[in-house]
Structures are given as structure tokens and as C-alpha cells.
Amino acid sequence: MKVILCLNLNGRAREDAVADNMLLLDYIREIAGLTGTKQGCDGGECGACTVLVDNVPRLSCLTVARSCEGRRIETVEGLGQNGRLSPLQQGFHEKLGAQCGFCTPGMIMAAEGLLRRNPDPGDEDIREALGGNICRCTGYVKIIESVRYAAECGKTA
């Protein structure tokens, strides 16, 4: 059975017919055509599918799309403005926070959620916020430096 889903995705109002059991991850990738959100473990364990729902990080592989009716969803594609990288995207570039890049969108979205509720986090705050995101390439040092860079950029903005 299909339902009409009305939500705001990356600042744009959308209305789409979706299966009533469609996952938010599938909606974002298949219907909205935004492939930055990655499909990793399909079990809520890796964090690659992290998006923001009303500013709160959420695993889109565990979220039924229709539960987001009327909500504001943000993906990594929605962070940059006017062709410019967001401070977090810039931080991951400048501080080499991305290795293979697969986990990067989820890491960035989890960190964005942190910075919106705590613009001046300590390293422990960053580690806790990223605790549900797995990177198989790094020791997380560069990822933490990337988030710290973005927080510093926010202080001067």
C-alpha cells in the first residue's frame, strides 16, 4: 500500500507516494535521488546512513519514511550553500578526515547534529557523538580533528 509523504528535504518541500513500509534510507536514495547517504550494515550498527531529522541525528536504515511526515530531513548534500562546502565538509577536506569516504557522510551528519546542540564541544563530546559511526580506515584522530576544525570555524563566523 502506498501513502503520500510530505516532508522537507534539504530545505525543499516534497510530496511523494511511498510504500507504507519504505525506509527513510530507501526514500532518500531511490525516490529523492540523493546518494550521499550510504547503505552500510542495514542494522543500525555502522552509522553510514545517518541523517538529521529536525536537527537530531537518526539512522535512516532503521527509520520508516512515513514516520517523518511533516519533518525536516537533512542529508550531507544539503549542508553546503551556494556551491561552498559547509564548515564540517571543509574540515573533513582540510584535516584529511575522509579516507575511503564511505563513512564520511554519516560522520559529517552526526557531527553536524553535535555542533548544532553544542557549538564548542570537547574531544570527549565529539567521540560520544560519533560513537555510533564506524570507520574502518582510520583511527578516528583525523575525524576528531576535522570536527574540532569546524567548531573553531563556527567561533569566528
Report what the structure shows.
The chain has 157 residues and is of the alpha+beta class. The protein has two domains: 2-78, Ubiquitin-like (UB roll), CATH 3.10.20; 87-156, DNA polymerase, domain 1 (Orthogonal Bundle). It contains five helices and five strands; from the N terminus they run ββαβββαααα. The longest helix is centred in the last third of the chain and has 16 residues, at 141-156. It is globular and about 45 Å long. The model has no long low-confidence stretch (mean pLDDT 96).
Layout: helices, strands, pairs:
Blueprint: E1 2-9, E2 12-19, H1 24-31, E3 50-53, E4 56-59, E5 72-74, H2 87-94, H3 104-117, H4 123-129, H5 141-156
Task: Give a brief description.
The chain has 157 residues and is α+β, with helices and mostly antiparallel strands. The protein has helices at 24-31, 87-94, 104-117, 123-129, 141-156, and strands spanning 2-9, 12-19, 50-53, 56-59, 72-74. The protein has 2 domains: 2-78, Beta-grasp domain (Ubiquitin-like (UB roll)); 87-156, DNA polymerase, domain 1 (Orthogonal Bundle).
CATH architecture of the largest domain: Roll
CATH topology of the largest domain, what is it called? Ubiquitin-like (UB roll)
Characterize the largest beta sheet: strand count, sense, and whether it forms a barrel: 5 strands, mixed
Give the C-level CATH assignment of the largest domain: Alpha Beta
Q: Which radius of gyration do the C-alpha atoms yield? A: 15 Å
- Percentage of residues in strands: 15-25%
Overall strand count: 5
CATH superfamily of the largest domain: Beta-grasp domain
Low-confidence stretches: none
Shape: globular
What is the helical fraction, as a range of percent? 25-40%
Strand order of the largest sheet: 2-1-5-3-4
Number of helices: 5
